[in-house]
Design brief:
Largest sheet: 2 strands, antiparallel
CATH superfamily of the largest domain: Intergrase catalytic core
Order of helices and strands: HHHHHHHHEEHHHHHHH
Helix content: 55-70%
Radius of gyration: 25 Å
Distance between the termini: 78 Å
CATH class of the largest domain: Mainly Alpha
Strand order of the largest sheet: 1-2
């Protein structure tokens, strides 16, 4: 359970999020930090049970002055709305002071993504490392780029999701399941295909997987086990390893993260002609508007198509090509 500034009401709220909404540990930790920061700002005169809308607005203005991003402020407002609504439902408070708060309008920022050549360079560099760490990294990269999973879904991938249907050890790469059942945000399940390259990388990794079991013996329910508290490789460690790989590959490590690989997956699918709804399903977005940020790829393709294929555009191009000859 994440820290909650020793407030029993926050503890109860976080328990509700887990039990009734299936909120992930990452989400609960973020909400606990948000509410803990608000609590600290209200003390010593006020607390969460008697704060007003005006005090919340002053707090949010302070976040802006501190240079906090619009995305973070929007998340905090969402956390406050849900928390005070919970207090009203439990009859702990009679009003919701966060009900009228408006989230800042988020600017749509085009996601950074890697080119196909850069992806190939990363994979080749990982393949050249034949150590257990190198084989694990290759399996992680192939699986992430093949599925577009969130990094938390990748590092927390259960063994049973990848194993053969009967649970027996795979004798060849094709014995591994061609589809993965991923449990994402809100505890929602989705099905994602696993291509042959990813299955081969995972099959090669399974041979050296016991190296990462440490003192826990020969069993772990996680595909990518670790000796840490979570029992599996952490998001932070994978991000660190990815940057180290980027440096080895001669790429700019400052622009590379697990989320960039997820963006690359979506962008490359759309550039290859995939339907936006299909990409939405594969990414696990509950709202199509979240996926629409990738339509810049489709817009560029349409513009290029019209420029190159429209009759009038082709006539203009023909005239330009003839002029040097006529001169």
């Amino acid at each position: 359970m994440p820290a909650s500034a020793a407030d029993p009401h926050i503890d109860a709220f976080l328990e509700m999020l887990q039990a009734e909404r299936g909120a992930s540990a990452h989400t609960r930790e973020a909400y606990a930090r948000d509410l803990g920061d608000l609590t600290a700002s209200l003390q010593p005169k006020y607390d969460l049970l008697n704060c007003t809308e005006a005090q919340l607005r002053r707090y949010l203005s302070g976040l802006t002055r501190r240079g906090m991003s619009e995305t973070t402020i929007a998340r905090r407002i969402s956390a406050f709305r849900q928390f005070f609504r919970f207090l009203c439902t439990e009859q702990i408070r009679a009003d919701n002071p966060a009900a009228m708060l408006e989230a800042p309008r988020r600017r749509k920022v085009l996601p950074h993504c890697l080119t196909l050549e850069q992806i190939t360079t990363l994979l080749r560099t990982a393949t050249n490392n034949t150590t257990p760490e190198g084989k694990r990294m290759h399996a992680l990269l192939e699986t992430l780029y093949a599925t577009g999973m969130r990094v938390s879904e990748l590092v927390g991938l259960p063994m049973e999701t990848v194993q053969t249907e009967n649970g027996q050890p795979a004798k060849k790469a094709r014995d591994l399941r061609p589809f993965l059942v991923i449990r994402g945000k809100g505890n929602k399940e989705r099905l994602v295909p696993l291509n042959d390259s990813a299955r081969e990388a995972l099959f090669a990794y399974l041979d050296i997987r016991p190296v990462f079991l440490g003192k826990k013996g020969t069993y772990s329910r996680w595909m990518f086990p670790s000796s840490g508290a979570s029992g599996h490789l952490t998001r932070q460690r994978f991000a660190q390893l990815l940057k180290e790989l980027a440096i080895t590959a001669g790429l700019d490590a400052t622009t590379l993260s697990p989320h960039v690989l997820r963006h690359s997956f979506a962008t490359h699918l759309l550039s290859g002609g995939a339907d936006l709804r299909v990409v939405q399903e594969l990414l696990g977005h509950s709202d199509i508007s979240t996926t629409e940020i990738y339509t810049h790829v489709m817009n560029e393709q349409l513009q290029k198509l019209v420029t190159e294929r429209h009759p009038l555009s082709r006539m203009k191009l023909t005239r330009k090509q003839k002029r040097p000859e006529e001169a």
